[in-house]
Amino acid sequence: MVNHFLERASRRMRKEAQFVPDSTMRALLEHRWPGNVRELQNVIERAVIVSSDGEVRISAEWLQTFVAGDSPALQRTLAEAEREHIVSTLRATRGVVGGKHGAAARLGVPRTTLLARMHKLRIVTNDVPDTHVSFRRTLP
């Protein structure tokens, strides 16, 4: 089922084929799944979203927190993880958002989607260390 959900999520998000390391597969197999198959599907989809190098990594701790419920603390954690992932990608692209080698291309999302996520998460490239190209936008 993991491979099935992985293929579907990768295809839908237009990302390269994803790889699940043994440690992640062990965490998935050892986890006590209190809900239905949708929980596994959601976990895999979230992991694909935050993966950037074709490898899906899920720790037992993250899995425990994620499946525990949709608490405000969990939402904050997911937003923080998304923010960190976007910031690290911007750092890698030296602040370039669009274009063939920009952060949006690396993340597998349209430039406008990335800009909207950056706006929502209050990310500006001036705040990202080691960037030279500036994305300036007034945040409310």
Shape: elongated
CA radius of gyration is 16 Å
What is the CATH topology descriptor of the largest domain? Arc Repressor Mutant, subunit A
Provide the low-confidence segments as ranges: 133-140
Q: How confident overall, as mean pLDDT?
A: 78
CATH class of the largest domain: Mainly Alpha
Task: Give an overview of the whole structure.
The protein has 140 residues and is mainly α. It has 7 helices and no strands. The protein starts with a helix and ends in a 20-residue tail after the last helix.
Please name the defining characteristics of this protein.
140 residues; mainly alpha; Helicase, Ruva Protein, domain 3; Arc Repressor Mutant, subunit A; 2 domains; disordered C terminus
Compile the SSE list and pairings.
Layout: H1 2-12, H2 22-30, H3 37-50, H4 60-68, H5 72-92, H6 103-107, H7 111-120
Helix pairs in contact: 1-3
Could you provide a short overview of the structure?
With 140 residues, the chain is mainly α. It is built from seven helices and no strands. It has helices at 2-12, 22-30, 37-50, 60-68, 72-92, 103-107, 111-120.
